[in-house]
Amino acid sequence: MDTLRESFHYGTSPLTSSSLASPYNTYLFGSHISKSLSPLLHGILFRSLGASWKFHLEQTTDKEKFQDTLAAPESIGISITMPNKVTFGLLLDDLTEAARVIGAVNTTFVRLDSTEKRRYIGTNTDCVGIRESIVQYDPTAVKTAKGKPAMVIGGGGAARSAVYALWKWFSLSEIYIVNRLKSEVDDIVKHFTKAMPGIQLRYISDIATAQSLPAPSIIVSTIPDYPPSEPGEVLCWKICETIFQKADKGLLVDMCYMPFPETRLVKAARKAGWKTILGTEVLVRVCVAQEVLWTERLPNQRGVSEAVAAITQSRDAAKL
What's the pTM value of the predicted model, to 2 decimals? Predict the structure, then answer.
């Protein structure tokens, strides 16, 4: 996988032939993470690789706690979620291209410099999770999306990961952005115009524009699943409905999986004839990308399948 190969640009491996049996620890740092599914998923993925490693939750924004944990000899990697994705990235030794361009870090990994000193590298695996969920669902997606538009719904950090993933790996003609606030889109356009020269971004501000444009081949939604109420939210929903009704159907990836993976947007897309990928699938692929960097092993398909099944069962149980 290119993610692992590129990680060695930042140093050599800290692992030995017996590292999977060593008592290494990994962590999630963030706020409101008590219900995170990451411990479940990483536990399954570690076991599938024969690793005896542990995954821990650290519900904090404390920078000193993060740095102490990072530097602990038994610490091999950290997952970072809101609101730490920007501030904690500033504490690391280096950032990958994805982290720099997107402007947020969600994963750290360890590499060694020429003196065997540990270096702490920050990256963004959200974009890898988006890419992998698409290509695993449809191996021809990179080829069929080439030269066509795609669309991102939202204006936050996840939307930036989606813009990066779509433009870097799918050879698109342009990316439409649909969002309740034009100011957030303006920030995204300004940021990526500088960070990814040549990128083509278009804000869809009204239904008439949505009607006039070719249908996107891929849509990535990054917004919460709640009924639209504010004028901007209602307009976004109507624009999405307009896109869904176009004759050419594509693939919707909805990154939202709370409270349930089958969001209102997923249901509307399916009803209109679109293919869909649930947010739980993206989450599993993000975790797999993290484990590739930590364990330096390629994904174990049995473990991936077990993780997808477990997260599906977990969400189904929550409905009861």
Answer: 0.93
